[in-house]
Structures are given as structure tokens and as C-alpha cells.
Design a protein that fits this description.
Alpha-Beta Plaits; alpha+beta; 103 residues; 4-stranded antiparallel beta sheet
């Protein structure tokens, strides 16, 4: 199993409604592709005293295997939802932090 984690800070001026809509569209991807075990995320709070206001949103996706993750990263069905997240992220695509844990 592979856990893919994404962290980002929303742009200043993005409404809560716009951020919530982008997050909901992204979470809906769990029903559009096989190989996704779980996909959770949205607005997050950092633990007190840990990192200040570095990140405002996070997603965690558990994939069955690398093939499932590769499909998620490349399938065109995911592109509109991923673009929605890029559009609300401070710095756009460059403002996203992502990492994978395999276990």
C-alpha cells in the first residue's frame, strides 16, 4: 500500500466556499478510479506551536499499489479536480508539497 500526502496553503482571498468546493471535487475522485482505498482531506489545523500558518489544507490518499497511484497521477478524469486544488493553492502547483510512504 502507498499513502500519498499533499499539503498546501490556500491563497489569500479564496473564499471558504471556493476552497470547500475544490476539496469536495478532489475527494470525489475516490469513486472515479479503482485502486484507491481511502481519500480524505480538506481544511486542517496544525498542532499548537507547530509550524504556524504554513499549511491550511491537506489530503491523504491510500492506494492499493504503485499502479493505482500512477493511474491517479495520469488519468485525465482526475485533471479537473487536481486543477481545482492548484487554483486555490498559494503558489499554484509550486505551492503543493507531496510525499509518499510505502508500507
Amino acid at each position: 500500500m502507498i499513502r500519498h500526502t499533499i499539503l498546501f496553503k490556500a491563497k489569500q482571498g479564496i473564499s471558504k466556499q471556493a476552497a470547500d468546493a475544490a476539496c469536495a471535487d478532489f475527494i470525489a475522485l475516490k469513486n472515479k478510479l479503482s485502486g484507491i482505498i481511502t481519500l480524505i482531506g480538506g481544511e486542517c489545523d496544525l498542532h499548537e506551536g507547530k509550524g504556524g500558518n504554513i499549511f491550511t489544507h491537506a489530503f491523504s490518499i491510500d492506494f492499493k499499489n504503485k499502479d493505482a497511484m500512477d493511474l491517479f497521477l495520469s488519468d485525465p478524469v482526475t485533471h479537473p479536480a487536481k486543477e481545482g486544488i492548484v487554483n486555490i493553492a498559494a503558489g499554484g502547483y509550486e505551492g503543493l508539497i507531496g510525499f509518499d510512504l510505502e508500507y
